[in-house]
Automatic annotation (TrEMBL):
It is found in: Cell membrane. It catalyses: ATP + protein L-histidine = ADP + protein N-phospho-L-histidine. CDD domains: HAMP, HisKA. Its main location: membrane. This is histidine kinase. The lineage of its organism: Bacteria, Bacillati, Actinomycetota, Actinomycetes, Kitasatosporales. It comes from Streptomyces spororaveus. The chain crosses the membrane at residues 12-34, 131-151. The keyword Kinase applies. Its EC number is 2.7.13.3. Keywords: Kinase, Membrane, Phosphoprotein, Transferase, Transmembrane, Transmembrane helix, Two-component regulatory system. Coiled coil: none annotated. The keyword Amino-acid biosynthesis does not apply. Residues 152-214 form the HAMP domain. It comes from the Bacteria.
Amino acid sequence: MRALSSLRWKIALTTTMVCCMVALALGILVHNVVARQMVGEVRKAAATELDHALGHYEYGTAHGDVNAVFDPPDLPRRLRELVASGQTGSIVGVQGGKPVMWAAGPADGKALAVWLPFGSTRERLRDIDTAILASAILAAGLVALAGLFLADRISRRLATTAAVARRITAGDLDARVNFPHEGDDAGPRGSRDEVRDVAHALDSMASSLQGRLEAEKRFTADVAHELRTPLTGSLAAAALLPEGRPKEMINNRLRALHLLTEDLLEISRLDSGVERADLARVELGRAVERAVAAAAGGSGAAPEGEPAASVRVVQDMVVVTDRRRLDRILANLLVNAGKHGRPPVEVTVEGPVVVVRDHGPGYPPELIEQGPQRFRTGDPGRGRGHGLGLTIVMGQAAVLEIAVGFANAPDGGAVTTLRLPVGRVPPGD
């Protein structure tokens, strides 16, 4: 909003500055034209008076003009020099401390000069300049208001589009801008509206993305459901095989495939949004210790004979969460540390924050930047996996409103931070 508000003021200030520049140019042009015309009229009248005075002087008659004198002391030097060269001319100057228009010509080696009052003309020019300035200020104010109104309208529409884009980024794929289409009430038919075009492109992108994600969710759920029944039958049939290495290998592969199918089913349930948390008050330190102990048997979080992870409770805290889902999150993190990291694996509880850390090569940069993505594990050299474990962590954390952060420790190792919400009240309280 701050950037959009800045855009609004930038547009308003730009239009105002352009209006001021245009008004200044027009004001200077009008001032020059009017001043040239008004001064020209006074200069013409002074020249007529000078011709009249020179004519009377030439014929030796009294000119009768009290404003005609020889070599007046107030005659401007430039005009005096012009007359000395045998020419006539006129110039604005002063006479008796008042502005006048001087006109002078040569008469027997002297300067015969006449003058007309110029004060009223100068006042009229000042009045015209004041009117031009007032008109420019009024026009600039009106243009500024109009620019601010139009810029506010544009910025509001951009703010709406940005808010919808943020909602889509947060996962609300039903969010739409829904500006009127071309030819509707938004403007004249055939008019171009770039903001509306951007909004429509965003709506189209969201619809396309939503369709593809829905298709992916349906495909994941269908595959998991279709695999579940034959896998159950295969596990039952494998149990009838004679004991030996072949039976053990078949059972291991079938169990791995069964776990993958269960993960796909869990992801499809999380994607559908039907998952609800069974909230209760939980002592976080003890819950984490029990979850880590339960995950130690066969979780793959540590080599056989070594503890899955060490738990250190810096500060215990009672939180409102779903213990089963929290156990699932911790179990997946421990399994991921066992597959892709190296011991020791450390789990630290400090208030509502749980940190799981291993001492392996750490998370791939793309996982830290973009988050976990299903069926993508980054560098194959970091270990095998299908990318569903951390995806389930994110899904379950979203149900519990747990903030999850992925990072790498400065001295090596992947660090996962769980920040549980505080102040939440369980149902029934």
